[in-house]
Amino acid sequence: MPKINFCPRCAKPLVTTYDGGRDRLACPDSSCGFIYFGDFSIGCSAVVLREEDKVQKALLIQRGQEPFAGTWQLPGGYVEYDELLAVAVEREVQEEAAIEAKVRDVVGFRHMLGGPSSNIYMIFRLDYVGGEPQYDGEETSDAGFFSLEEMEHMPGVQNISRWGIEQALQTTPGSGLTIDKVGSRAPKWLLFGLKDLDPSIWNPTN
């Protein structure tokens, strides 16, 4: 079902046109050129690990608002349209749990159809820098570092959050998609790629 009826650029009524192998809503004014490709969003979340008593524990926040109030999840949220991914996920950790952390790499992502938009949900591994978990009593009702064993006895831990934590615990930090500082020199770019931690895994001369 169409979600918009008028061009957001010039306000003319949209018409159906064939573009890129399928029918799409588009502005009839060729000088405008607007084509509606759908609604998309990017979400991000953070796996922040901290060792306590020789046990790795992950930062979780408890949702204070609907939907899913009372459930536990990784801190995160939507990326603003003018915000780089790494900035967004570090901001969300600070806002939701008062923890300072820095992006290390991407450990996974989920693509989901349906809902208000087609959504990409990026799960980052962040290095803990400092701070103690805090919550605001509104958006978040609790926050803390928990081990996988402790999560077994916590009702409402979201599956996607647990999956992300397991990915981070089972892989070497830096083995996921990392920021390529050479390729990301442009101020509005972040380029993520893989790098071999062990050169013996892949030898271009073989």
Account of the protein in words:
This protein is mainly β and 206 residues long. It folds into two domains: 1-38, no CATH class; 40-171, Nucleoside Triphosphate Pyrophosphohydrolase (Alpha-Beta Complex). The chain is 14% helix and 37% strand. The protein contains three helices and twelve strands, in the order βββββββαβββααββ. It has helices at residues 85-97, 148-151, 159-169; strands at residues 15-19, 22-26, 35-36, 40-52, 55-63, 72-73, 76-78, 100-112, 118-130, 140-146, 178-179, 192-193. The strands form three sheets. Strands 4, 5, 6, 7, 8, 9 and 10 form a seven-stranded mixed sheet that branches. A three-stranded antiparallel sheet has the order 1-2-3, with no helix packed on it. The chain has a two-stranded antiparallel sheet with strand order 11-12. The longest helix has 13 residues, at 85-97. The mean pLDDT is 92.
Q: Which tags fit this structure?
A:
three-stranded antiparallel sheet; mainly beta; Nucleoside Triphosphate Pyrophosphohydrolase; single chain; 206 residues; globular; seven-stranded mixed sheet; 2 domains
